[in-house]
Design goal:
GO molecular function: fatty acyl-CoA hydrolase activity
Structural class: mainly beta
GO biological process, one term: acyl-CoA metabolic process
Protein name: Acyl-CoA thioesterase II
Pfam families: 4HBT_3, Acyl_CoA_thio
Order of helices and strands: HEEHEEEEEEHEEEE
CATH topology: Porin
Strand content: 35-45%
Keywords: Hydrolase
CATH architecture: Beta Barrel
Distance between the termini: 29 Å
CATH superfamily: Acyl-CoA thioesterase, double hotdog domain
Number of helices: 3
Length: 280
């Protein structure tokens, strides 16, 4: 359970375990497997430990290979693939003992001038008009009960598409932020963003099929996860997570997500494919 912001920060306070090797702690949980968001955040934090502070993450691409054991700390081995004038690229292997559970490549980039553009996002009701997830836990998958360090507020669905909102019947939106302020540490905010980007995204693949967010009767498992970090953002300020479904087929679902600040600034784009299999 991640009941406080201090516990959330502690998840990313990795211990040095050797040259370019780090160990991350895991919170107590009732779940049978490690939540992939922890692995994303910790793997990015490990990679960031090997890169200078002038370079910030601009992308990561992770593959979840095996379920992690929530009772066993995870070791992160970082390999430098490139150290260029503007980019640093790292490969991270996340293991529990001899079991490899996740691989990630992460790229870091120096800030440099360039053209700026972003597509306008969909509007949503203000977060203070919506209930906190902790007020309606019966409407959320059980993992959300372990995330009281976050304030998550689901935007009511609009099931009927319209010319102004063609994604309405295959999308879900939620506001989120931490329940208390975080330190002014850009890498920390980015790693936490990676962590929580995995929390609500995969469930959206059930929306086009009329299956509730509780996904009763279905088993969901993340297979891979990619994030592009466009602009700096803070996880202790409201972010709107707009999630859509391009396709589901062959027991696989692809979900896209866009994370925007309250003023509409696009700070990250996310893509994730996962297995959603009907339980027998």
């Amino acid at each position: 359970m991640v009941a406080s912001v201090d516990q959330l920060i502690a998840l990313l306070d990795l211990r040095n375990a050797g040259v370019a090797t780090f160990t991350g702690r895991l919170p107590a949980t009732t779940r049978a497997r490690v939540f992939g968001g922890y692995v994303l955040g910790q793997a990015l934090a490990a990679a960031g430990r090997t890169v200078g502070p002038a370079r910030r993450p601009h992308s990561l691409h992770a593959s979840f290979l095996r379920p992690g054991d929530p009772r066993v700390p995870i070791d992160y081995e970082v390999e430098s693939l490139r150290e260029g004038r503007a980019f640093s690229t790292r490969a991270v292997r996340a293991s529990q003992g001899s079991t490899l559970i996740c691989t990630m490549t992460a790229s870091f980039h120096v800030d440099e001038p360039g053209l700026d553009f972003q597509r306008t996002g969909r509007t949503a009701p203000p977060p203070d008009t919506l209930p906190k997830h902790t007020e309606n836990l019966g409407e959320w998958p059980d993992i959300y009960a372990e995330w009281s360090a976050l304030d998550i507020r689901r935007v009511p669905p609009q099931p009927v598409p319209s010319p102004n909102d063609p994604d309405a019947s295959s999308s879900a939106r939620a506001w989120l932020r931490t329940t208390a302020p975080l330190p002014d540490d850009a890498l920390l905010h980015t790693c936490l963003l990676a962590c929580i980007s995995d929390l609500t995204l995969l469930s959206v693949v059930l929306v086009p099929h009329g299956i509730s967010a509780l996904h009763e009767g279905y088993t969901l498992a993340s297979l891979d996860h990619s994030i592009w970090f466009h602009r700096p953002g803070r996880v202790d300020e409201w972010l709107l997570y707009d999630q859509t479904v391009p396709s589901t087929s062959n027991a696989l679902g692809l979900a896209h997500g866009r994370l925007r600040t309250a003023d509409g600034t696009l700070i990250a784009s996310v893509a994730q494919e996962g297995l959603f299999r009907k339980q027998q």
